[in-house]
Amino acid sequence: MTLTGNRNDPYFIHTNTYDSISNIGLGAYNRLFNEELGLGGWDNINSAHYWNIEKILQKYKYQNKRILITYGAGHKAWFLKELRKRDDITLLELKPFLDELK
């Protein structure tokens, strides 16, 4: 496994390696600037975005709906950490959908 990949490749973006790399850079940014930037801090931005996701998930809870969440790739690891705490959803891997497009 390589430690880097093409940041524009959706296959690479949806790997644990990509998430690890993102978490290193964005984690440092968050530790250094989250409080100083207020609403523009990394955790603060993600919390606000996730609040919107949470509203929709609650609205359709246990209705067997498929929900597509689209935000910038850097937010993915943060959102996945929160989404994995829920027991009412099933997270789908993107790879099979990308494979179908080929």
**Residues in helix, %:** 55-70%
* Coarse structural class: mainly alpha
Instruction: Tell me the Rg in angstroms.
Output: 15 Å
Strand runs, count: 0
How far apart the termini lie comes to 23 Å
Uncertain segments:
none
For the sheet with most strands, the description reads:
none
Determine the mean pLDDT. Answer: 90
Q: Give me the strand/helix succession.
A: HHHHH
Determine the number of helices (DSSP H or I, runs of at least 4 residues): 5
- Mass-distribution shape: flat
Instruction: Estimate the strand proportion.
Output: under 5%
Strand-helix topology:
Blueprint: H1 10-13, H2 16-37, H3 42-59, H4 76-83, H5 95-101
What would you note in describing this structure?
The protein has helices spanning 10-13, 16-37, 42-59, 76-83, 95-101. With 102 residues, the protein is an all-alpha fold. It is flat. The mean pLDDT is 90.
Q: What keywords describe this structure?
A:
102 residues, 5 helices, mainly alpha
Concise description?
With 102 residues, the chain is an all-alpha fold.
